[in-house]
């Protein structure tokens, strides 16, 4: 890897901070959602979680011990601006992040800051949230505030984390905040509102306006880099000689990665395959126009090229074939014609002794190399930063002898093998890879799975009021790779 390669770990505010109602913090949609009965698998929430708000010095020590050069974390919008009004900031929130950023820098760890990792202020949600045009101005106002407060020291910014996961999980499937269901309800196919598409549009515009505002107002003085982080699986046809399977695999990539990458990294607009297919589906259901909102020329010009690097979150790989009535319910958004699933021969994340691991994560290191090559070729060889990659263990099942799963051999193998494929992409294929952030520094609140799924290099004891952190074997493995 490059001499200046960024080696880090990643987290997100709602997943680690706790102190959900302390020192003037406003509430976010995740506070609301996690407090809703039945929303979270184990009935938990992020009220305290790792208690990073009080224990941030420990987190910095852990990063130092890992020999990380960088740390990716997110800011809590509602902790900084409880009423989403930048003329009324929460001084305690600003002070917290200032202490944290200064602490990282004092230890020679550079911050990579995500502005938005899913915890929208509830007051913004109450006015329509991502479904309202107004959110674009609100987001810009928040970003402007963050650049003005922290941009003298933060040189690496991510506007929005994984918009397609939020669009699909939050609006449609309804399994993440704000929990808006619809796509599989009987009324869904006659509902022209189609929240997930509206939301994808306001997210793209929020990102683009923020990028341009950074360029015009801050770049000359602060000299940082800013982009978006997109999650993508790698996907292959189940049978490569079957044209339907080939088409399904490409469509899955277009409608997940391409949904946001094509507008930002290519020509300002959604991929043609998406536009054509959604129009066809909309017409078949008696709609006059496509439920995918049309982006104007002005909007396309605004969105196109708003990146300084390609932020990639990658975990797993899928096989694809065309969708059928029986498999429709598994689609992440309503017009997905591809059915995707893991090859049964792939190793599943989770303890080998357990009958089930984490539901969705299968270990396919070669998928990372293929995906990096795909991105490089499709989007004009951008500098790529892997902003997340990691491996989970299922925690709730009794696992005698190693209840903390400190001897996490599988995670060690995951890290080593995925990084080896990333190295091949860099050395053998010429992909411009700039950094790697491991998800995640320590066990934390894993969204709808609560604390049942653990991704941490450090185990966190959530029964213990001190939230004691203990390094797993994988922490040493990762450090050794960084050192060597
Ligand atoms: C990412 N999928 O989310 C998020 O950025 C993290 O906050 C999260 O903790 C991490 O990955 C692990 O889940 C994803 O189903 C959630 O494909 C789901 C998927 C991918 C990423």
TrEMBL record:
Which Gene3D superfamilies does the entry link to?
A: Glycosidases
- The main enzyme category here is hydrolase
One of the Pfam families matching this protein, by short name: Glyco_hydro_1
Keywords, in A-Z order: Glycosidase, Hydrolase
Gene Ontology BP annotations:
carbohydrate catabolic process
Highest taxon in the source lineage: Eukaryota
Q: What is its EC number?
A: 3.2.1.21, 3.2.1.45, 3.2.1.46
**Which reaction(s) does the protein catalyse, per the Swiss-Prot or TrEMBL entry?**
a beta-D-xylosyl-(1<->1')-N-acylsphing-4-enine + cholesterol = cholesteryl 3-beta-D-xyloside + an N-acylsphing-4-enine; beta-D-glucosyl-(1<->1)-sphing-4-enine + H2O = sphing-4-enine + D-glucose; Hydrolysis of terminal, non-reducing beta-D-glucosyl residues with release of beta-D-glucose; beta-D-galactosyl-(1<->1)-sphing-4-enine + H2O = sphing-4-enine + D-galactose
GO MF term set: beta-glucosidase activity; galactosylceramidase activity; glucosylceramidase activity
The record, for PANTHER family, names: GLYCOSYL HYDROLASE, LP05116P
Q: Which family does it belong to?
A: Belongs to the glycosyl hydrolase 1 family. Klotho subfamily.
Q: What is this protein called?
A: Cytosolic beta-glucosidase
Q: Which organism is it from?
A: Ciona savignyi (Pacific transparent sea squirt)
């Amino acid at each position: 890897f490059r001499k200046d390669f960024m080696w880090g770990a990643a987290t997100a505010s709602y997943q680690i901070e706790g102190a959900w109602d302390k020192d003037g913090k406003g509430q976010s949609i995740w506070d609301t959602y996690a407090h809703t009965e039945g929303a979270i698998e184990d009935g938990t929430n992020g009220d305290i979680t790792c208690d990073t708000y009080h224990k941030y010095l420990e987190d910095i020590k852990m990063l130092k011990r890992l020999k990380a050069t960088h740390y990716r974390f997110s800011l809590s919008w509602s902790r900084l601006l409880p009423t989403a009004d930048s003329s009324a900031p929460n001084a305690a929130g600003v002070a917290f992040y200032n202490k944290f950023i200064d602490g990282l820098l004092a230890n020679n760890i550079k911050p990579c800051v995500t502005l938005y990792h899913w915890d929208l202020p509830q007051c913004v949600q109450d006015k329509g949230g991502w479904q309202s045009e107004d959110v674009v101005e609100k987001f810009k106002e928040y970003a402007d505030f963050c650049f003005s407060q922290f941009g003298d020291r933060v040189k690496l910014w991510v506007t929005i984390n994984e918009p397609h996961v939020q669009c699909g999980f939050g609006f449609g499937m309804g399994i993440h905040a704000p929990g808006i269901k619809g796509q599989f309800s009987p009324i869904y196919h006659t509902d022209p509102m189609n929240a997930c598409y509206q939301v994808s549009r306001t997210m793209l515009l929020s990102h683009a306006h923020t990028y341009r505002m950074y360029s015009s107002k801050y770049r000359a003085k602060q000299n940082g880099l800013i982009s978006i982080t997109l999650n993508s699986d790698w996907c292959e046809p189940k049978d490569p000689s079957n044209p339907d399977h080939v088409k399904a695999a490409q469509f899955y990539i277009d409608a997940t990665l391409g949904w946001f990458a094509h507008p930002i990294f290519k020509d300002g607009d959604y991929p043609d395959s998406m536009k054509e297919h959604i129009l066809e589906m909309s017409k078949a259901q008696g709609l006059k126009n496509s439920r995918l909102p049309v982006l104007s020329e002005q909007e396309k010009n605004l969105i196109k090229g708003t990146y300084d690097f390609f932020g990639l979150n990658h975990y797993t790989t899928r096989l694809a074939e065309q969708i059928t009535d029986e498999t429709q319910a598994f689609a992440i958004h309503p017009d997905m014609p591809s059915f995707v699933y893991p090859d049964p021969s792939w190793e599943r994340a989770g303890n080998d002794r357990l009958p089930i691991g984490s539901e969705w994560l299968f270990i396919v290191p070669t998928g990372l190399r293929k995906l990096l090559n795909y991105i490089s070729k499709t989007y004009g060889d951008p500098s790529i930063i892997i902003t997340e990659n990691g491996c989970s263990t299922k925690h709730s099942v009794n696992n005698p002898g190693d209840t903390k799963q400190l001897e996490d051999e599988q995670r060690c193998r995951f890290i080593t093998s995925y990084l080896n494929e990333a190295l091949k992409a860099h050395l053998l294929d010429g992909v411009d890879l700039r950094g790697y952030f491991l998800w995640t520094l320590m066990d934390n609140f894993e969204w709808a799975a609560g604390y049942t799924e653990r991704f941490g290099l450090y185990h966190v004891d959530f029964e213990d009021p001190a939230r004691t952190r203990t390094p797993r074997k994988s922490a040493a493995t990762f450090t050794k790779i960084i050192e060597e």
